[in-house]
Design brief:
By secondary structure, the protein is an alpha+beta fold. The protein folds into two domains: about 280 residues, Aminopeptidase; about 150 residues, Alpha-Beta Plaits, CATH 3.30.70.360. It contains 15 helices and 17 strands. Strand 7 and strand 8 form a beta hairpin. Helix 2 crosses helix 10, helix 3 packs across helix 6 and helix 11 packs across helix 12. The radius of gyration is 26 Å and the shape is globular. The relative contact order is 0.18. The structure holds zinc ion.
Length: about 500
């Protein structure tokens, strides 16, 4: 025996031990993959006798009213008054049944009483405003609400089709349908429509929330715009994924400035303020904040893993082992996927001299930051300062607001389950999953009146099409309105059983 052991070299023994450990390690990872929960069978899809042409017509009319976000109180008043009138004419049952309250000029609350006061009310939010259209590359004018047939598929074009008049019209169509068909409400139902979400939300949503607080209104749950329905292919999933935002990223702008002596450009002194600032921007873009997973990313993995193919499951179940590679690979899938995993920083506006032949003493760039849970205004400022160096002044932009990352709404609640179930009943075979909403929404103001705030936009949109939101050719397949309206009816029915 001694001889045998002696004949095996130390290196060989180490090799055997390492191979054994690797084998055990792989075995554990495989077992974990095999033991991870499997997908449950889906919900039955529910169908209603909906009038699609009516919904399309109403959405087209809504788009034709250019409710561009007001820059100040009273701005673009005519459009918002016209929009209010359009709602009144198009949704007569809501207007005769609900108590309508107009707040701060154009913010609207519709309150429909339920039969059981012991149950908390629910609320659907939407914003009436849209961003302006600065692009001239639209195939059809942005406020035309044009309905177009492309290769046998009907689309509706216009600013706000997805963000978010399409959702607002779906909500209204659903409520009008419920009233028409005598679907009984036990809970009170509120529709809350702000009108400056695309700027700050303070004229609309914030005023609404203050009003609700004054009247001691607390909601069982709230649904606002948020995640879309996406094809799960890129995540190794067969079928579609409905992303439900149970939190939202924070927001802040920083102004970065560089100074030099300035002067006439015929005798330039280098580096100029713009040259120094450009270097700083390049340095910053090379030093992004770290990729990391938050609580809702973990929940997103847990929701998707049961539906993944073996390879994707293997990697995601053992994600802590593959963490650096997996994060890097996911970040490359799409900028929106990357944005779920890190605080993003993006230069958006830059200013130097006002004259062609003058070197500006100061050059300034605005850095728009979207904060992931765990970051604060201070932590992001520190990161930027470190990245750009001491020659650059970093200050919060004067007109910017600071919204910290929102709290998380639990997914282990009857409210989340109800919303997830309603989605599955409207879209058929699909996987509802929580995530951190990467943009801003009016919902962030509503935490004083509800703990259960979920962000979901019930439309199936190609992720590569997502740039049309706020860009040119914002459009929606008209048939998308059917599951969207169905979703809101399902939520109402499920919440009032
Ligand atoms: Zn929006």
């Amino acid at each position: 025996m001694y001889n045998l052991l002696n004949s095996i070299s130390l290196d060989a023994i180490i090799d055997i031990i390492i191979s054994g450990l690797v084998f055990i390690f792989l075995l554990i990872m495989t077992l974990r993959t095999l033991l991870a929960p499997k997908a449950k069978t889906g919900e039955q899809t529910v169908h209603y006798d909906l009038d699609l042409s009516r919904a399309v017509k109403n959405l087209s009319k809504a788009i034709q009213i250019p409710t561009i976000s007001p820059k100040f109180k009273g701005d673009n008043k005519e459009a918002f008054l016209a929009y209010e009138k359009f709602l009144e004419e198009s949704y007569p049952l809501i207007h005769t049944t609900a108590k309508k309250t107009v707040i701060n000029d154009h913010a609207l609350i519709f309150h429909i009483k339920g039969s059981d006061d012991s149950l908390l009310p629910i609320a659907f939010l939407a914003h009436q405003d849209v961003v302006p259209s600065t692009e001239d590359s639209w195939d059809y004018p942005p406020f035309s609400g044009k309905i177009v047939n492309i290769d046998g598929e009907e689309f509706i074009y216009g600013r706000g089709t997805v963000d978010m008049k399409g959702q607002m019209i779906s909500t209204l169509e659903a409520v009008e349908y419920c009233l028409k068909n005598n679907i009984k409400l036990k809970r009170d139902l509120y529709l809350c429509f702000g009108y400056d979400e695309e700027l700050t939300g303070t004229l609309g949503a914030l005023s609404i929330v203050k009003h609700l607080q004054k009247n001691n209104v607390v909601f069982e749950f709230i649904i606002d715009e948020g995640g879309l329905v996406l094809d799960g292919k890129m995540l190794g999933i067969k079928g579609n994924v409905a992303l439900i935002g149970n939190s939202e990223k924070g927001y802040i702008d920083y102004a970065l400035s560089a100074t030099c002596d300035g002067g006439h450009s015929s005798a330039p002194m280098h580096p100029t303020s713009i040259e120094t600032l450009s270097k700083a921007i390049t340095k910053l873009s090379k030093k992004p904040l770290p990729l990391r997973w938050t609580k809702s990313t973990e929940e997103l993995f847990n929701a998707l893993i049961p539906h993944m193919n073996f390879l994707a499951r293997f990697v995601c179940v053992n994600r802590n082992i593959f963490s650096p590679i997996l994060k890097a690979v996911l970040a490359k899938v799409n900028p929106a996927v990357e944005a779920v995993m890190r605080t993003t920083i993006a230069p958006t506006m830059i200013k130097g001299s006002d004259a062609l032949n003058t070197i500006s003493k100061t050059a300034t760039v605005n850095i728009n930051c979207r904060l992931l849970e765990g970051d604060t205004d201070q932590s992001v400022k520190e990161h930027i300062k470190k990245a750009v160096g001491k020659h650059i002044k970093v200050e919060m932009e004067k007109t910017s607001s600071y919204d910290p990352p929102s709290p998380f709404s639990s997914i282990d609640t009857p409210s989340y389950q109800l919303i997830a179930k309603s989605i599955a009943q409207s879209f058929g075979n699909l996987i509802p999953a929580p995530f951190t909403f990467i943009a801003g929404s009016d919902a962030k103001f509503y935490y004083p009146v509800s703990k259960h705030i979920y962000r979901f936009t019930p439309f199936m949109v190609d992720i590569d099409d997502a740039e049309m939101i706020h860009g040119a050719n914002e459009r929606l397949k008209t048939k998308e309105l059917i599951p969207a309206i169905t979703f809101f009816i399902r939520v109402i029915e499920n919440a009032n059983k």
